[in-house]
Design a protein that fits this description.
seven-stranded mixed sheet; six-stranded parallel sheet; Rossmann fold; Quinone Oxidoreductase, Chain A, domain 1; alpha/beta
Length: about 375
């Protein structure tokens, strides 16, 4: 096999030329990695709601053309100067929440945020030199979340990629790049749910079900799933949800229903919708004195949460989480190991598989609520 190290690679990528416009499979050029960077041959990638949100809302981030994608797996093709912990042939997962390893936040066990790598969907350039590694016919193409996995080859900073067990199937562990890690991590890392706890999950999409998986792993005694789409309830029960509630079927606020069913509220609630009103309901569903409510979803409406300061005296805790509190380089190998030992389910989250060329269909499936996760395989990878 001829080495491509140090050379520009021409490959296929799904380019978004403008908001809401269909992705176009183009031949693009991918430059070699600079110092502290890694060039990855992407084998599998999935569509996450964050891809959809930024692609749809021009007012939120008007950076086009760009290559989306941040939930993927692949194999290292080459590394830049100074990268010593990765080499060509390593199986890896890229991730959007970087972990530089040396800043005060990375050294803290209390957060997975990084002072050096702040998540910014509007920044389409590499941190190394504030330029892009993608181009098409000489025109620069912007990056997305530092990962841009909707391409057969991508370049990421070493702080945003981790080596994993080569025995782990790349077509499933790709989902640990965002959705499953976010949901499971919100339970295990952010909330630290104890065995026997009661849990309420608002929104039973892929992330909500991943929260349910985390609750199962934690040994929660009761897991209430809340969604206005009853079609999701059968799937929810497969993931360990013990009772499903549809707010549209009750005359009173759903938080009051939860209080009645749990004797005062749940120990932990998780908002996985991205709606400020739902966030408030999730907070109110927690028990006074010790309830913890975790905001997992992202509300792009810029609506302000309303809270009377006196309510804080009731002892509930309201917090948020990014990537489920997961430090990518430190924790993702642990999740892969759990999966390999059958302690963590991933396969059941994959409702569709498609070739990468059908990316527009993958987006349609997610937008219309007909898929949890659709994994796309590149033409040169195993299916």
């Amino acid at each position: 096999m001829v080495s491509t190290e140090g050379q520009v690679i021409t490959c296929k990528a799904a380019v978004a030329w403008a908001p809401k416009q269909a992705f176009v499979i183009e031949d693009i050029q991918v430059a070699p990695p600079l110092a502290s960077e890694v060039r990855i041959k992407i084998t599998h990638t999935s569509v996450c709601h964050s891809d959809v949100s930024i692609w749809q809302i021009q007012e939120l981030v008007d950076v086009f053309p760009r290559i989306f994608g941040h939930e993927a797996s692949g194999i290292v093709e080459s590394v830049g100067e100074g990268v010593t912990d990765l080499q060509a042939g390593d199986h890896v997962i890229p991730f959007f929440q970087g972990e530089c390893g040396h800043c005060s936040s990375c050294k803290s066990s209390k957060t997975n945020l990084c002072d050096e790598f702040v998540v910014n969907p509007g920044d389409g350039l590499m941190k190394t030199d504030k330029k892009t590694r993608f181009s098409i016919r000489g025109q620069p193409i912007f990056h997305f979340m530092g990962t841009s996995t909707f391409s057969e080859y991508t370049v990421v900073h070493r702080a945003q990629v981790v080596k994993v067990d080569p025995a782990a199937p790349l077509n499933t562990i790709c989902l640990l790049g965002c959705g499953i890690a976010t949901g499971v991590g919100a339970v295990l890392k952010t909330a630290k749910v104890e065995a026997g706890s009661t849990v309420a999950i608002f929104g039973l999409g892929a992330v909500g079900l991943a929260v349910a998986e985390g609750a199962r792993i934690s040994g929660a005694s009761k897991v209430i799933g809340v969604d206005i789409n009853p079609k999701k309830f059968n799937q929810g029960k497969l993931w360990g949800i013990t009772e499903c509630l549809n707010p549209l079927e009750y005359d009173q606020p759903i938080q009051q229903v939860i209080h009645q069913k749990t004797g005062g509220g749940v120990d932990y609630s998780f908002e996985c919708v991205g709606n400020a009103d739902v966030m408030r309901a999730a907070y109110d569903s927690c028990h006074k004195g010790w309830g913890v409510s975790v905001v997992v979803g992202i509300d792009t409406s810029r609506k302000i949460l309303q809270l009377n300061p006196l309510e804080l005296l009731e002892g509930r805790i309201w917090t948020g989480t990014v990537f489920g509190g997961i430090k990518g380089r430190s924790h993702l190998p642990e999740l892969v190991a759990k999966y390999m030992k059958k302690e963590l389910r991933i396969d059941e989250m994959i409702t569709h598989t498609l070739p990468f060329s059908e990316i527009n269909e993958a987006f349609k499936l997610l937008i219309e609520g007909n898929s949890l996760r659709c994994v796309m395989h590149m033409h040169n990878s195993e299916h």
